[in-house]
Amino acid sequence: MLKDSVSDNSEISVSGKDMFGAGFSERTQLLTIHPQELSLSLFRPVSERTSLRVVFHDDCYRGLWVDGIVKDVRIRLDGMQTVTLQVTERSCAEIKPASSSETQVLTL
Prior knowledge:
By secondary structure, this protein is mostly beta strands. Helices cover 0% and strands 56% of the residues. It has strands spanning 11-17, 23-34, 37-42, 51-56, 65-75, 81-90, 92-95, 104-107. The strands form 2 sheets. A 6-stranded antiparallel beta barrel has the order 1-2-3-6-5-4. The protein has a two-stranded antiparallel sheet with strand order 7-8. A hairpin with an 8-residue loop joins strand 7 (92-95) and strand 8 (104-107). Residues 1-5 and 94-108 have low confidence and may be disordered.
């Protein structure tokens, strides 16, 4: 389950193809996490059913990535989009818990 692994507002990079078919990569923040889906903000316009990859950059989650399909796109008044991504594949990441010097392997 994703919720146990990462936190809302994690710094992420999102890459894929926009609604015009052009490749892009955009650095943004995660909005919410639910089992098997996540929500994020994007400036680049994307369409539903588009594949995207989300890569996490927070120190604790470095190397963690999620692939997914755009499930919903909401246009906001600030010019950004709120994008809901249905998770299709996840990485296995090594994380270092804040309370320990040991490294654990985390499987999403």
